[in-house]
Design the sequence.
């Protein structure tokens, strides 16, 4: 396997992993926001969480 193929493969892997990681973090953030609402906490720091 040539150097070009290795680099291309690693870049593709990094970008696909990043998209999957972002999706998981958004789901996790949503869960924390729901728990915070259930416990009666207020999120004054970040008003984008709904």
Sequence:
């Amino acid at each position: 396997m040539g150097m070009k193929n290795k680099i291309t493969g690693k870049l593709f892997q990094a970008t696909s992993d990043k998209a999957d990681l972002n999706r998981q973090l958004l789901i996790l953030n949503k869960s924390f926001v729901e728990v915070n609402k259930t416990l009666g906490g207020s999120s004054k720091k970040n008003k984008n969480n709904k």
Remarks:
- Residues 21 and 32 are 16 Å apart (CA to CA).
- The chain is about 70% helix and 0% strand.
